[in-house]
Amino acid sequence: MIDERELIDFITTQRWFGSKTRDVSHSTIVDRSRLREDPRLELMLVEIRFDTGTHETYQLLGDDGGLDALGDPRQVRELVHLVRTNSKRPAGDGIVEFASTEGFTGAGHELREARPVLAEQSNTSIVFDEALIMKVFRRLEAGINPELELLRFLTEHEFENIARLAGWYAYGGRQMDATLGILQEFVTGGQDGWERALESMADAPERFLDSLHGLGEVTGRMHSVLGSDANDPAFSPEATSAESLGLLTATVDEEIESIFMDLPDHNLELEPIRGRGEEVRERLRLLTNLGGTGRVIRHHGDFHLGQTLWADGDWVILDFEGEPARSLPERRRKRSPLRDVAGMVRSFAYAASAAKLLRGIDPPVAWEERARAEFLEGYRQTIDQNLVPSGAAMDKLLRVFELEKAVYELRYELNNRPDWVKIPVAGIVRMLEEEVPV
Amino acid sequence: MSEPGHWFERDPDWFKKAVFYEIHLRGFNDGNDDGSGDFRGLTDKLDYLQWLGVDCIWLLPFYPSPLRDGGYDISDFFTIHPDYGNVDDFRHFVDQAHQRGMRVIADLVMNHTSSDHPWFQASRSDPEGPYGDWYVWGDDDTRWAEARIIFLDTEPSNWSWDPVRGQYYWHRFFSHQPDLNYDNPEVQEQMLNVLRFWLDIGIDGFRLDAVPYLYERDGTNGENLPETHSFLKRVRAEVDARYQDRVLLAEANQWPADVVAYFGEGDGDECHMAFHFPVMPRMFMAIRREDALPMVEILASTPPIPRHTQWGLFLRNHDELTLEMVTDDERDYMYEEYAKDPRMKLNLGIRRRLAPLLDNGRDEIQLMHAILFSLPGSPVLYYGDEIGMGDNIFLGDRDGVRTPMQWTGDRNGGFSRADFQQLYLPPLMDPVYGFQAVNVEAQLRQPNSMLRWIHRLIALRKDHPVFGLGTYEALRPSNPRVFAHVRTYEDDIVLCVHNLARSAQAVELDLSRWEGFIPEEMFGRTRFPRIGELPYLLTLAPRGFFWFQLRKDETE
């Protein structure tokens, strides 16, 4: 038996535990499934309750050694084996189902190596033989995970700049139906866009900047594909309603209001924006005076350089889960594709600052502006023009999403990486100072 | 795909934490430009409801009907009124709502049908036929004289003569709504089929209209009879056996002591929820008299309810503000204060919306919402009240509170692209409440609008299950103008203090049990002085309120 204290201590100290600032009162195992007898591998759905009475549910994989069977290569190989064989395992109050995509089952060979991906934040990923990668979702929510949904859709619609889906596993039971993990092809020899940006900053910034044109093109194509199927209700592009701009304004405005209310005292990094909440909200109002907003579609949802891979001279897009701090219905919501564009553009600001912060390299003059221009030019060439507004409206809407993103970043950095707070702060200040596009 | 389990985590108590939103489908949004709201139109507005924070949509009756009682006169239980679309449109709507994390309950009238229903037509024309015994027939109109007449303004008797069958038929509501005969097992079975039909489509439950009147018995007033409770137990058992996390919400306009019976026995084996009718007029009384007593009293006289049940609370709904559950004096007071124009009265009630009842006072509207949201129960909002829509007392019956939802300042308030003459009812166009002054689009964009305030209130409530699950304990401050209570659930302790007066008030509260705790104001997260041994002093703005989370002082 695992006692409650042990569960709480284990979960709350994990990197993937998303609610570190909240007080946990209880934990319970709401269901479990024996995936293998010998050596024992057990899947557990654990409910973590907070002192206000709300809760979150997490996936644990335990074995005789404890609660972290994913650290043991033999155990994680078993997960792949279960996917490959389309296995089913009973749980106390439901079933765990493993499924593989068509092309994958045939390629059955023994896996030798398994290594964890160290940079992972909200999930746990393991790479097998540099050929496959399994992502185990930690925090579970009822409904299909957008990553599975989007990878399937993009694969079916022959969008090539992704790592193909090999399989997944899911829980269906009394407690909830939820996607537990996905198995994808692992792209070898790739370098992630973030790493590449930082590395190039010192010696070869031009080559990287040029390649951003291509990233813009790939992003535009991705959105065009995501907004191309009118017959699939989960993906059909939708015209925005009369009040959709109002909804967007209200949503972003409340995020601004709430973060300014929560700004901690005594943090010098925050000085440039302290007391300027009303100014930021005023700026939002100016930016949301625009005509059309284009269409809303399913999109990446958490798009930044770290979600891209440069391999064999082309870009691969990864991680379609959406922002982990948002609820699943929120992440599945159709919104303007410019939200993704804003995410990437903000990521250029991060890269420029991080070069200095992490590597002590001064970014080349106007690096961020160049990056932005290259990316946007590529994007405009491939995006289906029906999906985005035209002219100044596009620039303004893009700024709205950049502002939304910067506010989101600010909250994230305050909670997780105090040294990085200055990056969203600088972004917000700059948005306050620049001209409103006309 | 519309199986709710697919998009929701299992939670048999979901309805206890939910915010409900009542929709008059005809008036919400017109998706096909014919002047009447429909499921396609409603589906297009789900993003708005998701943003607002709605957990469960309650739809007024959408079945085929001659519409002589807003659809509560049903002529076919197994399909959709053609004005609203078809069953596929409905299924799509339910699925889209579920995908956005919202549930759907449907209004269902079990007590009676429309006189146009084929069952009634068969029953009157062929007394010996298969439907002959589906309604309550009698040779004279004197039986069950103890049963009161509910629609006093239009109905002289609960019996009406049917010249076709040559007998009287029983009806507790309008004469065009004959009561079904629940002594006939076939009627019971068919009504269970109706429930199963809609539950199989994927809805999350029902609001059961007029449940106290299912049976008639000699020597009784025909309300809350044991037979009615047995049938509801059977309904509940059928639902529990086949479906998960569904809810039955009883409309029983009765005193709390009688309503509790509708929750059943043990942990609750009849309805999961029931409306608390008498609390609502007393909130209006309390704010007008600047006195917390009517509220404190009605809550004190509300019996405890089974563990897995919940009260449904509301300020206003699609009906008149009902004054059946008040004393005669209280009713006179309410009429005097809230229905100055006799046109505003209907039956035993006042047919007005929330904002006009409160003279469009922003502080009053907010205070009433705050009280509603702080009480033990699940709040039910009525469409349009979140933007402070008005009413039109010159329209007949209850149509005055059922005018089109005001989405924008454009033509027809953005409700429909049809010609104005085609609209089922004219939208409000007066300078104060008309769609050019009051609409969703404008209020979304104004940070200090009523709508944005309600949105924050809903979000706050949802962060604190204590409001739905916690205990309620009234504090009795010496200042009678202040309504104060404490809600507790697990480690979450919330203190709610409301000033009912038009003037600023000071109040001393005995919080000695929480000595050493720090009250943190919940909207602005401002920390107030630590609670000490002495009475805790608060000053409140006119019609102002505070909600505090009592937090342990971590600096100790």
Any overview of this molecule?
The complex is a heterodimer of chains A (438) and B (556). With 438 residues, chain A is an alpha+beta fold. Chain A has two domains: 10-185, no CATH class; 191-433, Aminoglycoside phosphotransferase (APH), C-terminal lobe (Aminoglycoside 3'-phosphotransferase, Chain: A, domain 2, Alpha-Beta Complex). Helices cover 41% and strands 21% of the residues of chain A. In chain A, the strands form four sheets. In chain A, strands 4-5-10-11-8-7-6 form a seven-stranded antiparallel beta sheet. In chain A, strands 1-2-3-9 form a four-stranded antiparallel beta sheet. A three-stranded antiparallel beta sheet of chain A has the order 12-15-16. In chain A, a hairpin with a 2-residue loop joins strand 15 and strand 16 (314-317). Chain A starts with a helix and ends in a 5-residue tail after the last helix. The mean pLDDT of chain B is 94. The longest helix of chain B is centred in the middle third of the chain and has 17 residues, at 185-201. An eight-stranded parallel barrel of chain B has the order 1-2-3-7-8-9-10-14. The termini of chain B are far apart. In chain B, helix 9 runs antiparallel to helix 10. Chain B is globular, with a radius of gyration of 24 Å. At the A-B interface, helix 7 of A face helix 3, helix 4, helix 14 and helix 15 of B.
- Inertia-based shape of chain B: globular
How confident overall, as mean pLDDT of chain A? 91
Q: Kindly name the structural category of chain A.
A: alpha+beta
Helix run count of chain A: 13
Helical content band of chain A: 40-55%
Give the ordered list of helices and strands of chain A: HEEEHEEHEEEEHEEEHHEHHEEEHHHHH
Structural class of chain B: alpha/beta
Helix content of chain B: 25-40%
Number of helices of chain B: 16
The Rg value of chain A, from CA coordinates, equals 22 Å
Number of strands of chain A: 16
What summary fits the major beta sheet of chain A?
7 strands, antiparallel
Q: How many β strands of chain B by DSSP? A: 21
CA radius of gyration of chain B: 24 Å
What fraction of the residues of chain B are assigned to beta strands by DSSP? 15-25%
Poorly predicted parts of chain B: none
CATH level 1 class label of the largest domain in chain B:
Alpha Beta
Please list the strands of the largest sheet of chain A in the order they lie side by side: 4-5-10-11-8-7-6
> Any idea of the CATH topology of the largest domain in chain B?
TIM Barrel
CATH architecture of the largest domain in chain B: Alpha-Beta Barrel
In angstroms, what separates the terminal alpha carbons of chain A? 65 Å
